[in-house]
Write a structure and sequence with these properties.
Length: 304
């Protein structure tokens, strides 16, 4: 009897020890400390897009520039100041809609400011800073054509960039309304526009600001127009790993300072209402009421 009691006691002790270690392991896996990682390695790795005009893209000198990149630069400066590392090495890493989340999760890069939508689904995989931009999802089409709104896409080929929320929305719309569209998923926004420009698609669905960027890059911008009732309103945020409150705090404070000081409004004017590289194009994309409200009251809320 005593032996059985002793065995039971040892079993319970063992189970308790296992549970404690499991909890510790789970806690370790659940937390991130990007600032400590940066300090230990002496380098910060910043994700960026290659052709998301005017948010994050290469100019003629292959330098990463854009509205979102301005925020990235400010965040890097804030990290240097907080860690007292003025000579911190900065590495830029090109990312895509398809690989940005897995490369963030596995530690390949530390954060990105581009054209990434903050939504409930993505919050299961990553964390987001305060919002840097608010958009609506619409259509880019040939001016003077038959496509005026989404209902006109029934039975027609439509292109969208792979790995984006617009791709999900378009597929849902196609299924829900039995529109029988032929959906073409392109690798990036530039490829999507080339598909439209070549006539392989009659419309390109994406966030309106990105569509304005592709229109501005076109050989003949006046041939294209943005149409359609927005299918969603979306908030772009800078993306970081989950459960990293210290790094999120630094990012949020940096973004809020830029927005409330007027610096973000100057950045917006530079990238959306003035000639920009690589072709000195002007997007002529006025500051929306949603953006004005954001600059007055910075927040990290999902757009509704």
């Amino acid at each position: 009897m005593q032996m059985r009691k002793l065995a039971l006691s040892m079993l319970l002790i063992g189970m308790s020890s296992t549970m404690v270690h499991a909890a510790d392991d789970q806690k370790s896996e659940a937390t991130s400390d990007t600032l400590q990682k940066i300090k230990n390695n002496g380098v910060i790795v910043v994700g960026h897009r290659e052709s998301s005009v005017p948010f994050s893209y290469y100019d003629n000198a292959q330098k990463v520039v854009g509205y979102s990149q301005d925020y990235s630069n400010q965040i890097v400066d804030a990290v240097k100041k907080q860690l007292n590392m003025p000579n911190l090495q900065v590495k830029m890493l090109p990312i895509t809609s398809q690989n940005r989340i897995p490369l963030l999760q596995n530690g390949t890069f530390d954060f990105e400011c581009g054209s990434t939508t903050n939504n409930a689904e993505r919050q299961q995989q990553a964390a987001f800073s305060n919002t840097i931009f608010v958009v609506g999802t619409r259509l880019l089409v040939k001016k003077g054509g038959d496509i005026k709104d989404f209902k006109d896409l029934a039975g027609k080929p439509v292109v969208v960039t792979s790995g984006t929320t617009s791709e999900i929305l378009l597929n849902k719309l196609n299924e829900k309304d039995n529109m029988k569209m032929r959906i073409i998923s392109a690798k990036d926004h530039g490829d999507s526009f080339r598909t439209l420009e070549s006539g392989r698609a009659v419309a390109f669905m994406m966030d309106d600001a990105l569509l304005a960027g592709e229109r501005a890059k076109a050989k003949k911008p006046d041939q294209w127009e943005i149409v359609g009732t927005p299918q969603s309103h979306e908030a772009y945020g800078c993306m970081l790993r989950k459960n990293d409150p210290a790094f999120k705090k630094l990012m949020d404070e940096t973004i809020a300072k830029a927005q409330t000081s007027g610096e973000a409004a100057k950045s917006y004017e530079r990238w959306f209402n003035q000639p920009i590289p690589p072709k000195n194009m002007n997007m002529n994309f006025a500051l929306s009421d949603d953006m004005k409200a954001l600059f007055k009251a910075p927040n990290d809320q999902i757009a509704k």
